[in-house]
Design brief:
Elements: E1 14-18, H1 24-32, E2 37-42, H2 48-52, E3 57-60, E4 69-75, E5 99-105, H3 109-112, E6 120-123, H4 129-134, H5 137-142, E7 145-151, H6 162-171, E8 174-184, E9 191-200, H7 201-205
Parallel strand pairs: 1-2, 1-6, 2-3, 6-7
Antiparallel strand pairs: 4-5, 7-9, 8-9
Length: 207
């Protein structure tokens, strides 16, 4: 993941990490932007003991576009799996006999952080990226850049794919600028997802 490319557009003084799991992105980003302020959000409550040790502010909250009750799919034998999500993973790891389906309540990003502002918002939530943005437009509109994981294939059932995300981001004034990373399929290694940096058009217009 080439996070140093963010510096071509701005130097983030604050980073919101949505879908932080146990801190993988946090550690990578902090190594590049050590002086930034970090806030972490994770929907899987089982990750909290690990997040707590990181020393950053955080919330355990399952985010979406509205307040509602959803099915949350969890691997029985890997409760901290990064694939646990609202949009069920389309792999042999998430067959009926290998998952727990939990009924959980969601909230929105703007309700969770109503008076906040972050330069960089990273969202990696296995298909819920657009939903979370829809529920966080107040916060998103004030950001300088969004780093999103987008899928090239239907890796999560009924989740938006890259083209859908690109079109949506254009409607809210964000332009894709950098490919930050690639993700291969856990079984065959084929390219399935990309991490793309989108820049707020208002930032580009002022430069």
């Amino acid at each position: 993941m080439s996070l140093n490319l963010v510096s071509k557009y701005f130097q983030p003084s604050s980073v919101l990490d949505i879908g932080c799991n146990t801190g993988q992105f946090y550690h990578s980003c902090k190594s590049v932007f050590p002086s930034a302020r970090y806030y972490l959000v994770e929907g899987n409550y089982r990750c909290e003991p690990f997040i707590r040790t990181l020393g950053s502010d955080y919330s355990i909250a399952l985010l979406s576009d509205d307040i509602k009750t959803v099915d949350f799919y969890v691997r029985k034998n890997e409760l901290l799996c990064t694939g646990n999500s609202i949009y069920r993973e389309n792999t042999t790891f998430f067959t009926d006999d290998q998952i727990i389906v939990e009924k959980l309540s969601t909230t929105t990003l703007d309700l969770l952080l109503p008076d906040s502002q972050f330069d960089l918002i990273k969202i990696d939530v296995q298909g819920s990226e657009v939903d979370i943005i829809r529920g966080g437009m107040n916060l998103v509109s004030k950001a300088k850049g969004l780093l999103l994981e987008v899928s090239l294939v239907e890796y999560n059932f009924n989740a938006p794919r890259k083209d859908d995300v690109m079109k949506f981001m254009k409607t809210i004034g964000y332009e894709p600028k950098e490919l930050i990373g690639n993700i291969g399929h856990p079984i065959d290694g084929s390219l399935i997802q990309e991490d793309i940096l989108f820049i707020n058009k208002s930032i580009l217009d002022n430069n």
